[in-house]
Amino acid sequence: MSEEKVLPFIEHLVELRKRLMVIVIAVVVGMGVAWNFSTDVLNFIEKPLTGTTYLTDVKKKVYTQVKVWSPALYTRYKLEQEINAPVKKRPLNYSAPLEPFFIQCKISMLAGFILVLPIVFHQVWLFIAPGLTRKERRMVVPFVTAASLTFCLGAMFFLVIIWPVIINFSLSYEAEGLQSWFNISAYVNFCLRLILMFGLIFELPVLTLLLARFGIVSYEFLAPKRKYALLASSIIAAFHADLITMFVIMVPLYLMYEVSVWVALLFGKKRPPAEPELPAT
Description:
The chain is an all-alpha fold. It has helices spanning about 5-35, 40-45, 55-70, 70-75, 80-85, 100-115, 115-130, 135, 140-170, 185-200, 205-215, 220, 225-235, 245-265. It is built from 14 helices and no strands.
């Protein structure tokens, strides 16, 4: 490798180290701020364990309508017991010294990372900015804003909509001889991993928008590859053992690809119309 090629490569590594150091410092500061409300985050994550979620309200409304439409079915399947089911307390358990402390550290780290997302994405932008034109560099504020908001939107979508579904499905297996006993590490690690994954999934349209504005991808390139996107979504989701988790990852992931296709169509770089060929003289 020639010296001319080595020097730019080393400069890129130095720049990358600089950006990573800023990100790490920002996450550490964010972690310190998030430590103060990490217990509240844990309580929110634990909430579905009581069995009282938005699914409970939906179920009660449906069963009430069943009682009006078909009292026989309401009585036959003992739906009154479902409506009046008592709230059960299912506390998390730990079996190793300092286990709750390390879990609090993990929660604070992820929450701190989310708090400093604008800084993280700004550093990413600064790293790639030297390769952009002056006009493209002006997109820094829309990029940082959109990327931060979509990550938070993905995380909230998971916590509010998907997480109760997963836990409710898991609790449905409880029976007289089978009771739940959740370990705090397994429970929280599973939740945090999916929060991070859903945040990244929701970043796909923003990334597509950026690449489409730069002319790297287009609607014509993405649209015919829907079947490959569905296959890739299935493969990524298959790394999770249980069927429900696979499903709740695969569907949003493919939907984000579909959104990305339309984002590329609406906001992609417009190509100039091809000039008609002149007839040969």
